[in-house]
Design goal:
Elements: E1 11-15, E2 30-33, H1 38-48, H2 55-66, E3 76-80, E4 86-97, E5 100-110, H3 119-134, E6 139-143, H4 148-156, E7 160-161, H5 174-184, H6 187-196
Parallel strand pairs: 5-6
Antiparallel strand pairs: 1-6, 1-7, 2-3, 3-4, 4-5
Helix pairs in contact: 1-2
């Protein structure tokens, strides 16, 4: 479970260089695009980790944010387990960067009891492959220190913490984020994040 006692600071990451990779999954798991009714499953995933105050609010957000254009449904990925239950999701989307659009990875989530199996990496890889196939780099992510495990995952996929760059309407709080991450991650992990920080 996410430790939300860790202070929230807007943390911006960017990946400018990415090549297609195999999204490796354990036997029985699969990644599919959005299908009707999956908005309810997405709401359950996000409500379970505390990102929304109710299932209704989560579902409303998903519908209003992602389901207005059926042509973009292929950007919305869901992870299924052996019983074909939704246990994770990740979205390849677009946000604003000044006057222009920019690719942004949204809402990488895996059900808690399925974590530690490489499923988050597979989902992240599958979404990044969408961008790579379309030539839609760079890709941005907005995250926060309490998602430090995800930050390390993103870094392994080629994302770098941004010192000043940002997108959408997010304030970049790099220094505060790094101060928190230094308390949480190992010295080696912190040094890696520090060395790879840019812009």
């Amino acid at each position: 479970m996410l430790d939300r006692t860790i202070p929230f600071y807007n943390t911006i990451m960017k990946c400018s260089d990415y090549s297609l990779r195999h999204a490796e999954l354990p036997d029985g798991f699969s990644i599919v695009t959005y299908q009707r009714g999956y908005e309810k499953e997405w709401a359950k995933l996000e409500y379970a980790i505390g990102d929304f105050d109710s299932l209704e609010l989560a579902e409303k957000y998903f519908v209003e944010s992602y389901l207005l254009n059926p042509e973009l449904f292929s950007n919305i990925l869901f992870l299924l387990n052996e019983e074909h239950e939704v246990v994770g999701s990740c979205i390849a989307w677009q946000d604003k960067h000044g006057e222009n659009s920019v690719s942004s990875l949204h809402w990488l989530v895996v059900r808690e009891r399925h974590q530690g199996m490489g499923l988050g990496r597979a989902l992240g890889t599958a979404v990044m492959n969408i961008y790579a196939e379309r030539g839609d780099l760079p890709v941005y992510i907005h995250t926060q220190p309490w998602s430090w495990k995800a930050i390390l995952l993103y870094a392994s996929l080629g994302f770098r913490l941004q010192k000043t760059d940002t997108f959408s309407n997010y304030e970049n709080e790099y220094r505060k984020s790094m101060d928190e991450l230094e308390k949480i991650v190992s010295k080696e992990q912190y040094e890696l994040l520090l060395r790879s920080s840019e812009g």
